[in-house]
Fold this protein.
Amino acid sequence: MTVLVEANHLSRYYGGHCAVDGVDFTLKQGEVLGFLGPNGAGKTTTMQMLCGNLAPSTGQVRINGIDLLDRPKEAKRHLGYLPDTPPLYRELTVNEFLAYCAELHGVDKTSIPAAVKRARERCGLDEMQERLIGNLSKGYQQRTGIAQAILHNPKVIILDEPTVGLDPLQIREIRALIRELGREHGIILSTHILTEVEESCTHVQIIQQGRLILRETIAGLQRQMHSCTLEVTTRMPADLKTLSALPGVLSVEPLAGNRLYVHHGVDHNPAKQIAELIVASGWGLEELAPVKKSLEDVFIQLTRETGGLPG
Ligand SMILES: Nc1ncnc2c1ncn2[C@@H]1O[C@H](COP(=O)(O)OP(=O)(O)OP(=O)(O)O)[C@@H](O)[C@H]1O
């Protein structure tokens, strides 16, 4: 798969303070990369360096194989950017605004109408084309912001918090649009919303105190969400001592009613033995299921392990 963004040992100092510290990563075509991190972790600084708006103190960024520092104009032709506050002109219609942006992106004059039509269609804006931007709902304004980012058909799209301030229906629509755009382009999506990463992204990257602490596929992240705990419910009270003696069981934690948590080792899942014991003992098996950690749990655990979050 084509590598669209390659960042090598990217660092940025503000005076003596190191905001981004030796970040490496790649983005390939067809990937939607969710960029997460606690406040002040270095997300905005990294995104600004990737867009060519901020010079790195050290390191290199290549966009579609072109060095962003050596050939910025050429490299930026392959980049589309939606900042967290989209630069929209409220007094222009959608068509007027997109045509103006196409000009700014350097789209050849004769190609502008076709470029505007294509971006408008892809972002579901056809019915709004003659409306003033100031009169559009927030969801349609955000679509207009995304349309301006893809006008010049860039290989890489960078979206900063694209669903902030939208209602649940609009959020769902924008996420579907991002997934669709992700098939043809490479997308980097900065967000604070963990479920957004699960819903829209193929990969996730977590930055903490300027360093990358995780780069994973969403499938890999979902594997990390499996904890080593089983929740068991029986009809009759189970004998905790007998359960604890099963191979692989580390401890048994009684909950309310006839519910229990059985904690086990990473390499040994005793679900089958537990089920057999409950049936053989006549305790009546009602439920036996793995307890899943939320993405939030994984995020907090990772950022705590690397010493970032208090508590
Ligand atoms: N212009 C600046 N001058 C000095 N320090 C800065 C500047 N911009 C950012 N910083 C510092 O660099 C660090 C990283 O900031 P950055 O804005 O990149 O983080 P972030 O992950 O985007 O945070 P947030 O989620 O709060 O926007 C922070 O400690 C911040 O205070």
Remarks:
- The mean pLDDT is 90.
- The two ends are 41 Å apart (CA to CA).
